[in-house]
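lol ok so funny story. i was supposed to be doing the assay writeup but got distracted and ended up predicting the structure for this chain instead. priorities right. anyway since i did it might as well share w the group, maybe its usefull for someone
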Amino acid sequence: MRIALYAPLKSPDHPVPSGDRTMARLLMRALALAGHEVRLASDLRVFLKAPDQGLLNDARSAAAAEITRIDRLWRMQGAPELWLCYHPYYKSPDLIGPVLCRRFGVAHATVEASWSRRRNLGDWAEAQSEVVGMLKSAAANVSLTARDAAGLEALGVGVRRLPPFVDVAPFMAAPRPVAGHLVTAAMMRPGDKLSSYCALARALGRVPGDWRLSIAGDGPARPEVEAAFAYLGPRVVFHGQLDQPQLAALLAQGSLYLWPGHGEAFGLAALEAQAAGLPVVSENTAGVPEVVQDGETGLLTPEGDVSAYAAAVTGLLADPARRERMAVAARRFAQGERSLERAAVLLDSILEKVQR
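and the output, tada:
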């Protein structure tokens, strides 16, 4: 099919790295791998920081200009067969696709849409209504997590499942783990990211033995992150933001991947770490269980329990045989069940039903 992809929260071409940008890019690659012709429809970002009518009106005005531009383009070059919107939700509704799809008779679908009953009333209701209309008229709604699927099912719309996936190719080099080398990779932002960093810093103070932590990542909250780990001294090394080859090389030398995962939609970095052969220690929270098999490819500890997290890390550091079994299972899981190639097949089977 000819597919127009739109990611209102963050375009695949956005300059700032994030899980959203990575997944949007992966979706485009998976669709192309399945034989579809995929083009980015628009790079207009719609992110409503607050339920403010003025912000919503501004977003609608910007969207109207994009609708005019794309309408002209489609009349000259032909409309696509499918409009695919990635990650629409109440703060980031698709204000472009539904209008164009009605106008041109084009089918539309969503990936990683979410709906919250709490946001269906009150200040966010109008913005969420934009998402509800799209979900109810979509040819397919594809959920990456059980949590999102449950929300859409509560709304009464059909859901297809596609597990989170990564491109494992950059992480295929043979692991060269260094005993006691712990690795973390995450952006440094206020909110959930900073909360995870602070929880990790508190937990590591309770982990005995000879270990060191390498942190890959950067962002506006870096001073707060560095302050949280300062008491651990030179055992913690900050590498800054790394490109993919650099990150793959760092992971190849790790023995464990650590990230509490507060508020994570799922956590693509944890899948990349497993592809590189690192067991993951995270919390049993948010969408993390979608990417870590507790007791097999890593350990999930109770949400917010710093002592339990520290004990999990300590236990794996002290048990090389168990850690090696998990490393093998982690690599098999990521490279088999969660690969880009497998996702392309699953996504294509979903779209095949849309075409009928």
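The first helix runs from residue 19 to 33. The domain at 2-165+340-355 is CATH 3.40.50.2000 (Rossmann fold).
back to the writeup now i swear
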